[in-house]
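FAQ: What does the model actually see?

It sees only this:
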Amino acid sequence: MTAETSNGRAAADVLLRVENLKKHFPIRRGLLMRQVGAVKAVDGVSFDVRRGETLGLVGESGCGKSTTGRVILQLYPATAGQVTFEGQNLTELTGEALRQMRRKMQMIFQDPYASLNPRMTVGDIIGEALEIHGVAEGKAKVERVQELLKVVGLNPFFVNRFPHEFSGGQRQRIGIARALALQPSFIVCDEPISALDVSIQAQVVNLLEDLQKERGLTYLFIAHDLSMVRHIADRVAVMYLGRVVELTDKQTLYNSPLHPYSQALLSAVPVPDPAVEEKRQRVILTGDVPSPANPPAGCTFHTRCPLAEARCKAEAPAWREAQPGHWVACHLV
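And it is asked to produce this:
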């Protein structure tokens, strides 16, 4: 990424910078559990997230979106690359230094049923971080938890209830309250609405938008629902098999995508106008997503790309700025 962003804002506006980030999970076999290969879940990802914006990260299931979010927060150690947050390289931090940075970075997990401890009350779940970081204890902690429950639209007197007493949408609100407890500046939203009913999804997204305006939050919003990403994101990064293949503002991406994979994804999004829907050309991708343990040589998308040439099979495309603020990795652009 360049020091100056496409709309003229200086690099000082960049809250998070990810440079050539990689996460390879070892494959071990045999009695001695020797490493025989690696799953390249994230394989050279680079992007910036500006202060106060929402960057959408989209792609098919298994392309490495959630792993990217977890490596950024150092829930998984990076295999290579850098994650710079407020000028600090997180990949070099350990112990107390990393623990202090965690106050500024939080995560809303995908599954509201699995991410809350069923043996803990709501008050203990939300208040745990307050105690660990020495922010509040006793009565002050309870008051802070009640205040957070109000913020996310739940009854403040639910503090002594357990997660099984809540619906999926209410549980996700508890997860959001937990993420807000330490007043972070950056939140990774890991498909926070994919496990919820359609009627509840809009409520959760509206809550996230309201919180962003009130508290000046910055989001990395991971999703595979492109229509929802269009609603909440400022810019969108498209990911395929561990790599970002296109990155630009949402209007440009939805109106004129450059990468064949982005075009295929967007052609699958239904349009609420029957006349337009009838005339649209669908891009149908053939075959399955290759295994990240053995990705194709050259451009990883060439095995499914309808426009692939001989060069695509042999040479990996460079990550470049095709137009001002519009980044893409494709030989054909």
